[in-house]
Amino acid sequence: MTAEAWILIAAAAAILLIALVVGFVLYRRRQISLTATKAPTAVEDRSGGYKAGGGFSFSQGGTATAPRQPVGERTDVDGQPGVGDDAAVPRDAPKRGITEIRLPDPVVDEATPVAEKSAPAVDKPAPVASEPAVSEPVVEDRAVEEPLVEEPKLPTAPATPQSLDTAPTIDEIAPTEGRLDRLRGRLSRSQSAVGKSLLGLLGGGDLDEDSWEEVEDTLLIADLGSAVTTTVVAALRERMATRNVRTEAEVRALLREVLIEALHPELDRSIRALPHDDHPSILLVVGVNGTGKTTTTGKLARVLVADGRRVLLGAADTFRAAAADQLQTWGERVGADTVRGKEHADPASVAFDAVSKGIELGVDVVLIDTAGRLHTKTGLMDELGKVKRVIEKRATVDEVLLVLDATIGQNGLMQARVFADVVAISGVVLTKLDGTAKGGIVFQVQHELGVPVKLVGLGEGADDLAPFEPAAFVDALLG
Ligand SMILES: Nc1nc2c(ncn2[C@@H]2O[C@H](COP(=O)(O)OP(=O)(O)OP(=O)(O)O)[C@@H](O)[C@H]2O)c(=O)[nH]1
C-alpha cells in the first residue's frame, strides 16, 4: 500500500472519530440520566413570598388592586354555559345543614379564641350544636325599582337583623393561621397521584417525544387545560435541556418551579374585606347553586370574626328559604347578624337593605350571599347585574367572589365565563377540592378568568376554608 493510501485511510479514520464524538455529545445533551448520589440542589423560591400555612390576608378595596392577568386563550368554546337549572351540576342533591356538620374540636389555647376578640357583647358559651330558632323574615318583600333608589334611604320597616339575644350559642373557631397546613392532607390524598405520575415520567431518563406526549396527557387529564399544559411542557423541555437536569431531586425542583410559576404567585390574593373609613367593605358571593356559596359565605364570616371583624350577612339568595335559614344559622354561631327577605323577595332589595344596615350599624364587613338558580344567562345577567348596581347606590362592592365546584371540571369553567361576563369577578373560591383528583382546574380557572383563586374549600366542616397558596398547593400536588 502506498503512503498516499495510508494517509487517506488515516484521514477517514480521524473524520469518523470526530463524527462519533460529536454525535455522542449531542446525544448526551438530550438525555436525562438519574444519578441518585448528587446532593439535592436547594430549590429556588419562586413562590413570590407565599408561605405554606400562612393565615388569611385581608386588604382594603380600592387600595389593593389585583394585577389582572391577561385573560388567556380560551381552550374550549364548545357547549353552552351551564347556568341555573340547565347546568350539569347536581344542584338538588341533598344538602346538609350546618347543624349536621361536626365541628372540629375546640382548640384550647394559643390562638386567641375568636369570639372573645370579636363581636362585642357576645358571651362565649360552650359550643352546642342545636338548631336555633329562625325568626320571621324581617325585610319587606319589595321590589327595588332602580330609578327609585337614586336617593337611597333606609327601609321604612327597618331590616332589623336577627338580634344576638336569639343567638346565644357561639362557636369556637379553629385558628385561621396555618389553615392550609392543617388541611393539606386532604389535598395530598386526592392530588398526589398526578404529581407522582409526572415525577415518574420526567424522572424516567430518556425523554423522547412519546414521553413528552405522556407528560402532556397527564397534565390534560389533571384538568390543566391545553393552554396551560402547552406552557408548562415548553418550560419543562427548555429548562431540562439548558440546566442539564440529572437527579431525581433536580427534576422535582424544576417541576415545582414551573408549576408554581404557572399559578402566578405574584397575583394579589388578599380578600378585600377591610373596612373603609366611613363604611364597611362589601363582598358579594356569586356562583351557581350547589357549588357551596352559602357554606363559603358562612365559613368566610367565621374567618373574619376570628380576625376580630364585625360581620353582617345579607341573604340575597331568596330563591330558597332554606338558604337564608342556613346562612342565618352560620351567622348565629359566630355572632354575626343576618339581614334576610321573604322567600322570592327581590334579591337586590335584600342586598340593598343589608348594605344600608351594615353602614348604619357600623360593621366592618357585609357579606352578601346571592342565588345562582337561574334558568337562563339573561336572567342571571339581569338579576346579578341589578344586585350589584343597587348595592352601589349605597357603597362600592369591594370584592366579588365567584364560587366554583372543583369536582365538575370543565362545566365549572363554562359557568365561570358566564359569571365573569355578568359581574367583574375579583377572586375565585374553589370548593370541594377535597373531593377531586383534578386539582389542575385551579390552573385553568386562573388562566381563563384572569383572576386569582383566593380561597379553597377543603371539606364540609365549618372551618374547612383555607387561603390558596400556590407553593403549598404544588407541594401537595407533588406529594
Ligand atoms: N366536600 C366539600 N363539600 C362542600 C364544600 N363546600 C360546600 N360543600 C357542600 O356542598 C353542598 C352545597 O353547599 P351550599 O353552600 O348549600 O351551596 P349553595 O351554592 O349555597 O347552594 P344554593 O343554596 O342551592 O344556592 C353542601 O352540602 C356543602 O356542605 C367543600 O369545600 N368540600
UniProtKB/TrEMBL annotation:
PROSITE patterns: SRP54. It is a peripheral membrane protein. Keywords: Cell membrane, Cytoplasm, GTP-binding, Hydrolase, Membrane, Nucleotide-binding, Receptor, Transmembrane, Transmembrane helix. Its main location: membrane. Its EC number is 3.6.5.4. GO terms for biological process: SRP-dependent cotranslational protein targeting to membrane. GO terms for molecular function: GTP binding; GTPase activity; signal recognition particle binding. It catalyses: GTP + H2O = GDP + phosphate + H(+). The keyword Membrane applies. The keyword Acetylation does not apply. It comes from the Bacteria. One of its GO terms (cellular component) is plasma membrane. Signal peptide: none annotated. The chain crosses the membrane at residues 6-27. GTP binds at residues 287-294, 369-373, 431-434. Part of the signal recognition particle protein translocation system, which is composed of SRP and FtsY. Involved in targeting and insertion of nascent membrane proteins into the cytoplasmic membrane. Acts as a receptor for the complex formed by the signal recognition particle (SRP) and the ribosome-nascent chain (RNC). HAMAP family: FtsY (MF_00920). Belongs to the GTP-binding SRP family. FtsY subfamily. This is Signal recognition particle receptor FtsY. It comes from Antrihabitans stalagmiti. The lineage of its organism: Bacteria, Bacillati, Actinomycetota, Actinomycetes, Mycobacteriales.
